[in-house]
Structure formats: structure tokens, C-alpha cells
TrEMBL record:
UniProt organism field: Rhizobium changzhiense
NCBIfam families linked to this entry: PRK06834.1 (NF005303)
Cofactor: FAD
InterPro entries, per database record: FAD-bd, FAD/NAD-bd_sf, RIFMO-like
GO molecular function (one): FAD binding
Transmembrane segments: none
Domain FAD-binding residues, every copy: 5-340
Pfam families documented for this protein: FAD_binding_3 (PF01494), Rng_hyd_C (PF21274)
Protein name per the record: FAD-dependent monooxygenase
Domain of life where this protein originates: Bacteria
Presence of keyword Oxidoreductase: yes
Length: 504
């Protein structure tokens, strides 16, 4: 029986990101993926948010995505575009890039980290005991792992087999999504009608001055609303033709479907992100309507929150209790995403009363304070973990400062590329005694003279030191003393005296 420290079920964006994080930490991780390769049929997520771009930047791989995507102000709430170009981040924009490209680039990175992927296989069951998990595969073989992480989508077998409830709301709307061949070109773009919102587009496009300009040739991507939500059968060419004729009086010479699927606004969330040695991330932990574009981004950020914690537990530097902070931190984030998504779905209804409400919301979002608050929420830049009272930086993401060090200038994110915790001393060298933790926390003496500014919050007072987790969030803030530093290091990175064990 093949053995790994961690097995990840699913090689989508969440599973790939988690495997990369674990590999960076020196953990023996493998992925089980049902697809024979990274190819992806159909249209899934369409881009990366500002916070996800920051995450990729801190691992040194963001340029790979920027080289293939299109930078644009794509943050929005329902139908209202929200500009974040004045936000204090290097990535004060979104990146338009289809999921198939995001996955391909992530898979390339994971390949460089030598993570094995068992392809054309699925997890069909598992049994966990005191020392690990025995995982059954679809070829009747088995794997043994210390932990199993379900990144296997909204219909997650891992979640179901673990007996974790998936609570929430049934669908109220349904849509057919397809790529088709048509004799006539339909009106490209988004169309609001009395029957719902329709959209036509092409695979290739460019963004000019915030507007999408589609290619002149190629198959047509179509999204049409359905009369009833929650259909369980696969949609057909006939279903699509009927919907088009009902709205436009023509099917534009529809004669071939390359692929077809449906999605709804079903909103559900796992009641627990962990059950013993089983963990959930991404769509396995939360599903919702794609409006707002937060699904893929939330999953990738789940992975970055979980990866370093799981690595420390596998290595023995931290107790298993550290894994409970994963649910404590990420469950509220996804609950908020579900709430924001449901609100946007409601605003997309086409009756007169919703139209009046939408006008009021649009007017509000034209004001400075509401714009900043909602835009920070939609871009992921407002995420804040509750670590108790203290400096505004506590529990928030560390800004990517341009630091000066004895070795020359360095960006803060560059210090996080190896996914290790960092103690950043901005006071005189030697002001803090971090030596006892030198085997697990990197210590950097640096200077920074600029303003400290956070998205949605604005200017904050400059700290004398910060303790930064591998995911970039601030675990402790110093004000000239070491008060609370030892407790923070022990809590997040293991008690002194705990010996790391081999991760193999």
C-alpha cells in the first residue's frame, strides 16, 4: 500500500494550491484526480481577485498568471462595477483569466514541486483510525495517509462519507450554460429581459477601457435562465433552443452543442471543516451561485490557510488542535460569501420592485464609504480573522511593504515565498529576543519609512515589530515590548521543546 503524509482528493484550483503549500513545507503530499489530465470542459470561474493575486504573489508565482490574464477593474456587486484602483495594494484590480488556464498554471507549479498526481482515479471511500486514514480508490487499490483533504467539489464524496452535514438553501434560480455553434451571431454581451438575464460571448476576448470586446469568430458561449430551478437531468439542445426562442423569438440558427451544463443559486456550507483526520476545502466546504466570482478565490484562500497548519501538525511542531483554527477562521469567511452572493442573486431578479431596489443599491455604492466597504469585501481585501483586541493589523493581512535591510531592499512578500513564519523587527536590531524560535521562525531586521495603510480601514499606526504567519496574516503586533510574543509563537508555531519529526 502506497503511503503519503497527506492525500488531497481533487486537482482543481483548491487542491492544487493546497498541495503546493504542503510541498513547500516539505510534506509528502499526493493528489488523487479523476481527470486523465488537467483539461477542463466548459466555463467555470473567470478570474482572480485582488486578495488571491496577493496570495500568489507571496509565493512568487503571480507573474505566471498576470502574463496570461487581463488586468481590469472587474470587482463588482450584482450589476454594479466597483473600482478598487485606489486601494492600498500592489494588486488593486482583478485578473480576467479562465479557470482552465488558472488550473494549468497551478498544475505546472505543483509539478515543479514534484507532487505526484494519481490521475484517472477517484476516492471511493476511506476509514480513519488513531494513526491515519486508509483511502480506497476506484481501481480497487488503496492509499494510506496521515490526513485526507476533500477538495473534490460540491458533490464531495469525502464530505458525504465523513458524515459532515451540508446545510443551507435550495435553489431558487437555474441557468443553462453552453458552448454552441450558430448560423447567426447573437447580440454579444449581457441582456436583462423580463424572463431573466441572458448572455452571449466568445472564448477569446480583450478588455478595453473596462469593456469586453469579443473575438469575431469562434463558438458562442451562451447563458440562459430556466423556468424552474433544481432540475436533476442534464439539459438538452432542445431545452436551450426553447429558452432562446422564448426570449428572442429565434434560436439564431443553433445547430450544435459542444458542451452543455446547468448551475443554480443553491447555497450550502459544511457544518464542520474537519472531522478527525478528514478536512474539507473549496467547493467541498461551500457552494453558491457564481455571481460575484468569489468561489474559486475563497477555495484557494482556504488552501493557503490550511496548508501551513497541516504541515506543522504532520511534522509534530504543533498539536492537532491547531487544525481547529482552520474551521474557526475560514467558516465565517465562506458564510459571509454565501450571504453576499445570495444578496446579489436577489438583486438580479427582473421585476419592477427589484429594479427599484437595484437603483437604490447602485446609488449607495456610488458613495465613497459604501463603495470601499463592499469592494473590499468582494475583492477579498477585507478578510479579518478574530485574534482578540489589539492593533488593527492583528488578524489582517500584512501589507507588501518595500523594506530596507542590511542586505539591500526587499519586498515583504518575498520574505514569505518559502511559506515559513516571519518575525519582522522594525526597531533597532536586537530589540527583540527571537533566538529561541530560530528553528521555526525566520527573523528579519528591516526599516520602513512609508505610511501604513490597510484596505477599507485606511491609515494605521506603525508597529515596532510583527509576527507574520506563512499565509501572510499578522499573528502578533509589537509596540516596543515583547509582551505576548512568546504566547503567540507557542500558540501558532508550537511550544519550545517540541521536536519536528520527519514529514515523510
Amino acid at each position: 500500500m502506497r503511503e503519503h503524509a497527506v492525500v488531497v482528493a481533487g486537482a482543481g484550483p483548491t487542491g492544487l494550491m493546497l498541495a503546493g503549500e504542503l510541498a513547500l513545507a516539505g510534506v509528502d503530499v499526493a493528489i488523487v484526480e479523476r481527470r486523465p489530465d488537467q483539461g477542463l470542459a466548459g466555463t467555470r470561474a473567470g478570474g482572480l481577485s485582488a486578495r488571491t493575486l496577493e496570495v500568489l504573489d507571496q509565493r512568487g508565482i503571480v507573474d505566471r498568471f498576470l502574463a496570461e490574464g487581463q488586468i481590469a477593474q472587474v470587482t463588482g456587486f450584482a450589476v454594479t462595477r466597483l473600482d478598487i484602483s485606489d486601494f492600498p495594494t500592489r494588486h488593486n484590480y482583478g485578473l480576467a483569466l479562465r479557470q482552465k488556464h488558472i488550473e494549468r498554471i497551478l498544475a505546472g507549479w505543483v509539478g515543479e514541486l514534484a507532487v505526484p498526481i494519481y490521475r484517472s482515479l477517484e476516492v471511493t471511500g476511506f476509514a480513519q483510525d488513531e494513526t491515519g486514514v486508509t483511502i480506497e480508490l476506484s481501481d480497487d487499490a488503496s492509499l494510506r495517509a496521515g490526513y485526507l483533504v476533500g477538495c473534490d467539489g460540491g458533490r464531495s464524496l469525502v464530505r458525504k462519507a465523513a458524515g459532515i452535514a451540508f446545510e443551507g438553501w435550495d435553489p431558487t434560480t437555474g441557468n443553462i450554460l453552453a458552448e454552441v455553434e450558430m448560423e447567426e451571431e447573437p447580440p454579444l454581451g449581457i441582456h436583462r429581459t423580463a424572463l431573466g438575464i441572458y448572455a452571449f460571448g466568445r472564448e477569446e476576448y480583450e478588455i478595453h477601457d473596462g469593456k469586453i470586446v469579443f473575438a469575431k469568430e469562434g463558438p458562442i458561449g451562451v447563458m440562459v435562465p430556466e423556468k424552474t430551478a433544481g432540475a436533476t437531468t442534464e439539459p438538452t439542445l432542445g431545452d436551450l433552443r426553447d429558452a432562446l426562442i422564448a426570449a428572442f423569438g429565434t434560436d439564431y440558427g443553433l445547430h450544435r452543442v459542444n458542451w452543455i451544463s446547468r448551475f443554480t443559486d443553491m447555497s450550502r456550507q459544511a457544518t464542520a471543516y474537519r472531522k478527525g483526520r478528514i478536512l474539507l476545502a473549496g467547493d467541498a466546504a461551500h457552494v453558491h451561485s457564481p455571481v460575484g466570482g468569489q468561489g474559486l478565490n475563497t477555495g484557494v484562500q482556504d488552501a493557503v490557510n490550511l496548508g501551513w497548519k497541516l504541515a506543522q501538525v504532520v511534522k509534530g511542531t504543533s498539536p492537532e488542535a491547531l487544525l481547529d483554527t482552520y474551521h474557526a477562521e475560514r467558516h465565517p469567511v465562506a458564510a459571509r460569501v454565501l450571504r453576499m452572493t445570495m444578496a446579489q442573486v436577489a438583486l438580479q431578479r427582473t421585476d419592477d420592485r427589484t429594479e427599484a431596489l437595484r437603483e437604490v443599491v447602485t446609488e449607495l455604492l456610488g458613495m465613497e464609504e459604501p463603495r470601499k466597504r463592499i469592494a473590499a469585501e468582494m475583492s477579498g481585501l477585507a478578510i479579518h480573522y478574530e485574534f482578540g483586541e489589539g492593533h488593527p493589523l492583528l488578524g489582517r493581512r500584512m501589507p507588501d511593504l518595500d523594506l530596507t535591510t542590511a542586505d539591500g531592499p526587499v519586498r515583504l512578500f518575498a520574505l514569505l515565498q518559502d511559506a515559513r513564519p516571519v518575525f519582522l523587527n522594525l526597531d533597532a536590531p536586537g530589540s527583540f529576543d527571537i533566538a529561541p524560535w530560530s528553528d521555526r521562525v525566520r527573523s528579519v531586521d528591516a526599516g520602513y519609512d512609508g505610511a501604513w495603510e490597510l484596505p477599507a480601514l485606511g491609515l494605521v499606526s506603525a508597529p515596532t515589530a510583527v509576527l507574520i504567519r506563512p499565509d501572510g496574516y499578522v499573528a502578533w503586533v509589537g509596540n516596543g515590548t515583547q509582551d505576548g510574543l512568546q504566547a503567540a509563537v507557542n500558540s501558532w508555531f508550537g511550544q519550545l521543546g517540541s521536536r519536528p519529526k520527519s514529514a515523510d
